[in-house]
Amino acid sequence: DDDIDGVVNRDRFDPSGGYSGIVSLDHYWSERWSSAFTLFAGQVDRSKRTGEGDRTVAVAAANLVWHPVTGFYMGGELQYYYDKNAPGQSTRTRDNVDHDLYGLFRIQRSF
Q1: Among candidates 59, 92, 88, which has minimal Cα distance to 1?
Q2: SS3 call for 86
Q3: Which run of H or of E encompasses 76?
Q4: How confident is the model at residue 91 (pLDDT cuts 50, 70, 90)?
Q5: How confident is the model at residue 8 (pLDDT cuts 50, 70, 90)?
Q6: 30-65 per-position pLDDT tens digit
Q7: What is the DSSP letter of 21?
Q8: Which residue from 7, 21, 74, 95 lies 20 to 30 Å from 62 (Cα-Cα)?
């Protein structure tokens, strides 16, 4: 698991190093159509507590949404997920990299 922020080493706390960032863009094609494009990347150094090295995650997502009237939304989204050195991953792939593609369709009504 990557839910530990560091380790205690000789009565001293050694924090895990890492970074993450996200960029997102919303675009309105017309009054009734819009899209969002999102990129996320992050990395954490797990070597201080497990010796497993860095875990790297990247996500890219895009959607297309139709909103014909106020409060009604319908659309689809695709998401690509890259995960290198995830916990327990070594048995899933030969190169320790997991690639996933997700699709989602939603209908939402607000009153």
Answers
A1: 88
A2: coil
A3: strand 72-84
A4: very low
A5: low
A6: 999 999 999 999 988 766 666 566 788 899 999 999
A7: E
A8: 95
